[in-house]
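Closing statement on the guanosine-5'-diphosphate sub-project.
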Amino acid sequence: MKNPFEKMPTVLTADELIDKAFRRAEKAASAATPRGGPRARARWREELRVRTVSNVIRDNLEKLLRRTPGVSELPTFYRELVDTLVERDQFHRSLARVNWAIKTVRNLEARHALKIRYSRDPEEMARLRRAFYGRVADVLRDIANDLEYLNRARNVLKDLPVVDLELPTVVIAGHPNVGKSTILRALTNAKPEVASYPFTTKGINVGQFEEHYLRYQVIDTPGLLDRPLSERNEVERQAILALKHLGDVILYVFDPSEYCGYPVEEQLHLFEEIHREFGELPFVVVLNKADVAEEGNMRTVEEFVREKGFEPIRVSALKGEGLDVLRKRVIELVRPMVEEHARRIMEAELERYREEPGL
Ligand code: GDP
């Protein structure tokens, strides 16, 4: 799946679009070599100006509408993100007003072109064309704010993360520097791709794992699941909500060595928060940096998470220790999801076959 807003074009401002249309019209008019007497030539040129201005504006705005997906039809993950970033009502309202502008320009074009065609006086023709220019400029100025808004929205939306919504997804959580990206690299075969993500300056890391028929992705979202909820703003909270629709498994990483800079106590608090937030998903709990962590700290963390019903795994992502166990645990959780997904596809196929036995 690609970013659904990838094809959304840059949106010109009202003034830029007016300028562009008028310039094109002048070019077209001076390049034209109409036949006939002065009146016929003037008529031809003025009508050409009107048609060109209308075409340039409508083409531009129609392309914008054609390439902008409707928010309501998006998969939930993207819908949540879009709702966070751009207000959906405003987004739709602005698109509707662009649609209105297209229709209005088309009507103005038809009316003025017709009047020019029936006019017998070149001055009258020029006056009609100028009147058309004025009306069109008014229409575009009417939607100037919408165009600006849509361009701002576009600049944000084109940076939405590119993740595969079909794949089972493991979301990594834990304080900064506990070793999340090292683990992500160790768990996935592919070199992780850094997708841009409007909520963090660092982007999100996405890596895929593939083995036989099993495929899943692991994502790490710096800035989102690595600090207490109270420190997050509304937008980030919404982004976390979106992650809930994407995630199938939470992989929580502790660093009992405390080299990450966060005392164990603080890490336990964050774990509780993330657990409260994502409680409905299965968790895999990892104690990383087992190569350098103190036994006492590791025990503290282990006792804490065991009490919550999890069996933690000690690993050293750096030395590659414990990773097989971790990978196996993740696969155990993900495999039924993949199978369930395959079963649904097969059932849909079967359903189709039942409806159309001739297939
Ligand atoms: P992130 O911010 O959670 O993604 O953490 P990183 O993966 O960037 O790791 C932070 C630092 O910890 C890096 O310098 C890693 O090399 C180091 N690190 C990661 N895993 C281990 C480990 O198992 N043992 C040790 N000693 N260092 C590790």
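The pocket of guanosine-5'-diphosphate is lined by residues 176-182, 288-289, 291-292, 316-318 (CB under 6 Å). With this model delivered, the sub-project is considered complete and its resources will be redirected to Aim 3.
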